Amino acid sequence: MKDFKEAVDKNLKTLELYVPIVARVHGAAHPEFHEVKKVFDELSPKVNQLGEENPDLDTELQELRRITDNYTVHSDVCESYEAVYHMLEEIDRAYSK
Question: What is the domain range of residue 26?
């Protein structure tokens, strides 16, 4: 799962910065993002403990796909919100390979 590790290395730190900010800024208009944050907060520690073993993220990624309608970006959001969805999708795709 080399691709997955690369996707995590590329995106996780930025996601850890962006997700709480986007939840605070867009949470009122897009309450589903609070759910995204909750699932991300469950997923992140699992990924951080990655080491050489692959974490079991099936449940979290399935939930993120459901909440985000397969990472569909709303037209009224900022670039950071859009970036979060793209980074999560990249991790999801790499994990699913």
Answer: 2-96
Whether the per-residue pLDDT at 1 is higher than 60: the answer is no
Distance (Å, rounded) from C-alpha 68 to C-alpha 45?
21
Cα–Cα distance measured from residue 42 to residue 60, given in angstroms and rounded to the nearest whole number = 8
Q: Per residue in 29-79, pLDDT tens?
A: 999 999 999 999 999 998 877 665 678 899 999 999 999 999 999 898 999
R_g of the chain, CA atoms, integer Å: 13
C-alpha–C-alpha distance, residues 86 and 18, integer Å: 12
Distance (Å, whole) CA 95 – CA 97: 6
Number of domains the chain contains: 1
CA separation for the pair 92, 57 (Å, rounded):
9
Has this prediction a pTM greater than 0.85?
Answer: yes
Q: Is 55 helix (H, G, I), strand (E, B) or coil?
A: coil
Q: Per the structure block, which two tokens stand in for 62?
A: 């399935």
